[in-house]
Amino acid sequence: MPTSPVRTAIFPVAGLGTRFLPATKATPKELLPVIDTPLIQYAIDEAREAGIERMIFVSHPSKSAIERYVRHDADLSRTLRLKGKNKIARSLESAALDEAEHDVVFVMQDEPLGLGHAVNCAAPHVLPGAVAVILPDDLIVGRKGCIKEMVDAYAKGEAGHMVASMEVEEEAVSSYGVLAPTRTEGRLIFASGMVEKPEPADAPSRHAVVGRYVLDGSIFADLDALTPGAGGEYQLTDAIAAGTRRIGLAGFAFSGRRFDCGSKQGMLAATLFMASLDPAYADVLSEFCAQPADMTEAA
């Protein structure tokens, strides 16, 4: 496994996925598939590519299915092989985390107290150095994984905290944290801070922050020092802002395409995009995209 300056990745997966109810009543949103691959698998594969050693999943007691999915299921593999389904067994074994190569840790966030609280739940288990935070419902597809790109850039030592950033339309800035840039060097957008969900007229830029972070280890001291904000939640952006004054902040303009799979529209867009890359779905796409659907035919 390649070495990495970032050895730990944190996956906050405790959210209840209310926007996808009733589908998420029994199935965690992180296990919802884009065609046939669950969102959590894309996130895991990103971390693997980046050379991450320890993967910490901050989950909820009601979402035990995630742990079952992440870990190797020897009984299922054996049953599939006995039935002659060796290809499927190999695929499942490849998707699961091999605990001979990666540390796998599950911790529980019993109450929805914000992203900052979720990240801080992982603090006792992180390895020394910077940590990656990966939000699985932000799907970023590219030739190189977003976290791999960020870890490579972070290794140059120019940023204390690094956040994934993309330019959005002016009218969309109020849905994001937005960087206040000071200068740009290549793909790095150095910033004096972030403004959370500004009105378009007040936004310092159109550089929006999305769900990938590489954070200096001091983030946990800043999280410990936070006081809760609206709704009693502890916000990761507040802890990043506190560290920015000491160690700096940079956005990273990743090369991939991002889909907000926390929304139904984003999930549909991701599914259509992935289907468009596979010739096996060409006939289906052409049939339903060439003309409006007629619901009377389905009645």
TrEMBL record:
The catalytic activity, as recorded, is: alpha-D-glucose 1-phosphate + UTP + H(+) = UDP-alpha-D-glucose + diphosphate
EC numbers for this chain = 2.7.7.9
- Annotated keywords: Nucleotidyltransferase, Transferase
Look up keyword RNA-binding and say if it applies.
no
The record, for Pfam families, names: NTP_transferase
**Molecular function per GO:** UTP:glucose-1-phosphate uridylyltransferase activity
User: What name is this protein filed under?
Assistant: UTP--glucose-1-phosphate uridylyltransferase
* Source organism: Palleronia aestuarii
